[in-house]
Known about the structure:
The complex is a heterodimer. Chain A is mostly beta strands.
Amino acid sequence: MSFKDNIAHSVIGIRSGAGAYINSNPNDATQATCTEISDFKAYKTYYTPFVSYSLTKKIIMRRMTFIDNREGFTALIGNKGKEYDGLEIEGNDILIIGESESPDCPPNGGFCSKYHKHGLLSPAASWKNKALHVSTLSGLPPHKVKSSATWETIVTFNRLEFRNWKAKTKLGMKNSVFAITSSASDMVPIMRFFDTKFTNVEDDAMTYIFDPPKRWANLKDCGNFPCSGPLNTLVTFKNTTFSGITPSYATADYQVIANNPGFSKHVPSCVFHEKMNAWTCQEPKLGMIIFESEDPDTLDRAMQPIYSRQ
Amino acid sequence: MNNKVNSFMDKIWDGFYSGQLRLSRFPIIVNAPDKSVYDFKFTGSPAKKMKFKLISQDPDAGMTIRI
């Protein structure tokens, strides 16, 4: 059975609100290794254009178009059993367009929706996947990460095009090409972009990377201080092209990192962008080191905080 | 440079109570040109057995870690 050439639009929903729910088919053994979602379009959805949170090793998104959605497209994997095999999330040949002419606050329209918007939301892989029908309120929205991040997730985007992204929405809210998913407390996988095309993208419209919220610093979440996943975000761009309105940092190869007070300002070429709460860099050897305890008490012995110093 | 890193969030619930179990796994952003050296200071007892992996787009990236 194939699911192709469908369009979702005008979707509202505070708890759900994605354009479509597309998971791998548990009755097809091949999809436990690789699942592809392709040829789908969405506009004006409250959450992600589609959501996929499957038990698989690799998920590929291909040939899609998204216009003026509140939350960007993303895909997630839940697969603790294969976490050391290198889980992969890949997006190819996808067009992501900013705000449309269709207003969020139409005169006499009976509704007015004022919110931040972005075109792409950081993918994630975690120990547990989610069913197509999430049966608990705490599990919603469906793309919310509710279990520990897997060891390594390889996120690759090839030939994406972002078109017409201003730094503010028409209603004055943040508007950006990509954002970090708000539940990525543990880890934001490195996002690697190749051959990306930006058309009419303003200087501060690349991203907004949030600081870990102070509310995470409590006994039932992260302990004495907030979890540090968002602060260790790394996004890399290679062979990028720009046309029309072009950001000041526009170069073929560059990186975007979070505003990490103990790291970012010490990297020689990085430049801070206050409105994005992020830094752009020219450092090809930026990377991420992941380490973990392999002792039996890895879940209940505290080694943190750990300081990475140079 | 002094990057303070936490372990993972407690995502385990036992009925009304949180699990008080947090995975000791640490993803840390680094700049790893030739001969870069990082000191990792643990404020708790380090595990006896640990696994490390460096991920970078540049295959020449590398670093020395001192614990």
